[in-house]
Structures are given as structure tokens and as C-alpha cells.
């Protein structure tokens, strides 16, 4: 008589199979091979060596920062100390009068970087973006008002073009163009949005079409920011220029400044970010070639052959000639990410100290080589303990109307 196979053995076999992996894991984790050091101990040793190297690098960085700051920093009011509060107070914060602030709930939603830019409402990012647009609008409108008063006295009339360098999808450019058009319709102000990313410019165009701006109020130019002459040629010679750039990544901040120099020494308002990306060198392309590798941000943000770091004689005099490049590289990287492992306060302090020096280097270069009045400020409501990308680089030709405006901006 044939019997059916029992189902019990397979179940027992399955149970054994499920228990087998943890047994093997325990053996591998606890049994040394040929009495050599276990992987866990080896990793601890590697971590210990990494900690020692990091501590040594942090010590050398602190010494470098101390040596640069020893005699004080240019453009800043007092000597720094090792406290976060002291460094926070070194850079003045822009104070926009309530009467001059943008009333976001009263303007076209397309102009709002939160609603038009589709940033989630109520988030810190959305509030910061509004503050950034508010700061740029207040500064540019202050310059334009002063220029108009001067032109009225001289019985002259020159239009003004704002160049948004590295405009992206237009969170800043669309807001500026729309605000000047709606609130100051009699002013001859237009905006040229420049970016190497044609896809971003198409998104900007789509957003701007819904607000029906007057003809020629907002124009776009797909170009590498390093192609200064090509960009400048888009603007009639009889117009004044203001160059603005929000979160100009890496060397784009330096290119925006150079663009201002090329446009008859125009004033600039720049908010830099990602300083370490400027260390990447990219090919210096011919003036007629706007093609830039879009595969990686660090390639788009890398410096061209005409931009060298450090930028200023001031910072070069503070660094060792034999290790100048290495020391500047360290400053730029610390400005971005600090030095780990650190507490959040220690990390932000290292970033703040290094970033102040990197941005002052840019401003001092404009002062030394191009005769600019320059100023370092921080945007309103941008706490450096929380957010490290709130600096404003301001510059205008010495003795110009714009320079007087920038030096008199309200701050605390």
C-alpha cells in the first residue's frame, strides 16, 4: 500500500533554513581568521586615525583663520573673536523699512517666489526666498530712485537695465520685472535674464507670459556668464546697468562681478553660495561659444582661466606664498561645510569665519582692481547660525550715485 509523503519534513527543513543565516553571521562576526584583527577592531582603528587627522586639520584651520583675522578684517567695524555672537555682529544686517517691504498678499501670485515658484507655503525656505527678493528689490529700487533724481537735475533721461546673472527659472528676475512694471509704470526699467540653462529660461518664459508684462520689460539671454562681451552687447549703450545675482554658485559670483565691470562699471548686488565649487577649473571657451557642459553643477560653476584665487592683494598678503593655493582651497571648503566632527555651533562658527574671508576677498579685489566702493552685508532675517548663504556683496564705482546709495543703506 502506497502512502502519501508527509508534509512535516519540509516544514522542519524550512525552519532550519531560516535559522541558518544568523548562525553563520555570528560565526563570521566573532571568529577571527588566522588570529588577525577583526574587521570591527580594524574599523575602530581607521576611525581613530581619521579623528586624529581631522583634529589636526581643524587646529591648522583655526590657526589660519586666526592669522588672517589678527589685524582685523577690512570693511568690518571691529576685531573678531572666537565667539559666534561676535562674528554675527561683524557683518551688518540690512534693515528694510516696513513702508518699503513688499506686501506679498497684495501682488500678483506669479511674482511671489512661494506661489509662483511653487515653494511650499509656510516653510523656512519660502520665507527666506521672499526675504531675498525683498532685499534685492529694496536695494535696486533705491539705486534707481537716486539715479532718477540726479537725471532730473541734469535734464537727462537714461533707461536702466537690470541684468539677473544666473537667473535660473526666474524667482528673482520675474519678481523684479513685475514689481517695477506694476508699481513704477513710468520708469524706464527693464530686466535681462541670463542663464546658460535654456530649459530654465523656458520655464521663466512660461511664468512671465501669465502676467502680461509690457513689451521688452523682461528679456532672456542664453549665455555662459563668462561670455561678458556677448551679454553686454544685448544692452543699448545709452542705458545704465545694475547687475544682480541671487545664489550665484561658485565662480558665478566672480563672473557676475566681472560682467558689471564690463558693463561700463555698473553697480552689483550679489548673494554668493557654494564657494568650494569655484575651485573647479573649466575650459576657457571662445567669446562666441555659449555651450557649457550641463552634466554637473560643479562644471557650470567652475572658474575660467581669467579668474584666479585668492582674488585680492589683501588676502594674498595674508597667506603663505608657498602654500597659497592650498590655504585658499581650505578656506573655500570650510566656508561650505565646516570641519567635522563638530557641534553645530562649532561648525557654523568655522563656516562663518571662513566665508567672511572668502567674500571679503572678492570685494577687496573689486576695490583694488576696479576702483569700486564695496560693502559686505547680510540679508534681513538671515541668521548665520541657521543659514549660511545670506551675505550680500555690494559694489559701485567710487564716487557714483549708486555708491552713495549702497554706503547709506539702513542696517544694524
TrEMBL record:
Biased segments, Polar residues type: 31-43
Region (Disordered): 30-63
Any GO CC annotation of this UniProt entry: cytoplasm
Limits of the Methyltransferase domain: 128-277
Protein known as: Methyltransferase domain-containing protein
